[in-house]
Amino acid sequence: MSTAPRTAPRTERGTRTRAKLIAAAEQVFATLGYHEASIVKITEAAGVGSGTFYLYFDSKQQIFDDLVEDLNRRVRNAMSTAASQETDRLAAERAGFRAFFGFTATHPALYRIIRQAEFVSPGALRLHYSRIVDGYIQGLQASQAAGQVRDMDPEVAAWALMGIGELIGMRWVLWEQAGADGTHPDVPEHVFEEMMDFINRALAPNGQLPAEGTQR
């Protein structure tokens, strides 16, 4: 898979144009699917000429790969920014999941495009998940060292936690009807609390749950 645009934007205007193309690609790929999407449809959605596309991308495949990378960067930033406001790991998990579900509610294309990547760009798919897991592992290792979570294999735990978030989000965000603005509802509060109770019990050191006030 490709990992960089054909020509990096050299001006603010170029940066904006490339961002418009990425946003248009998100819309087109999510709505039509990779095989029905075309460069013409992407440039039409972005409101730019077809020739402009090739200033930034070599092909439909490249803009797809760059879109996966862009979505990955944005969702990781949303999660890490939220989690970084907390000093306790269990509270950070809570904040990170809140941010993840909020992102997927407003960017349901994340699910649809990542699912497509399994078939059209396996390398992009693996990179997406690996980048999330790598950061997760580091956070869990630091929390283990601080005695905030129990002893466990951090790689297994990271994949398991990511799987929980992905499937809860699919069931209670993606599969729920979108509003007029195209966004989906957030995870219902009782579902979120049940999920976090499960995670707290799985991570808490020595099986000891945090005090009630630190869970919510």
TrEMBL record:
Identify the PANTHER family for this entry.
HTH-TYPE TRANSCRIPTIONAL REGULATOR BETI, HTH-TYPE TRANSCRIPTIONAL REGULATOR RUTR
Q: Would I find Transmembrane among this entry's keywords?
A: no
Q: Which residues form the HTH tetR-type domain?
A: 15-75
Q: Which domain of life is it from?
A: Bacteria
Upper lineage? Bacteria, Bacillati, Actinomycetota, Actinomycetes, Micrococcales
Could you tell me what this protein is called? TetR family transcriptional regulator
Ordered alphabetically, the record's keywords are: DNA-binding, Transcription, Transcription regulation
Q: Entry's PROSITE patterns?
A: HTH_TETR_1, HTH_TETR_2
Identify the species of origin: Glutamicibacter mysorens
Provide the residue ranges listed under DNA-binding region in this record. 38-57
Q: Which InterPro entries does this one have?
A: DNA-bd_HTH_TetR-type_CS (IPR023772), Homeodomain-like_sf (IPR009057), HTH-type_TetR-like_transc_reg (IPR050109), HTH_TetR (IPR001647), Tet_transcr_reg_TetR-rel_C_sf (IPR036271)
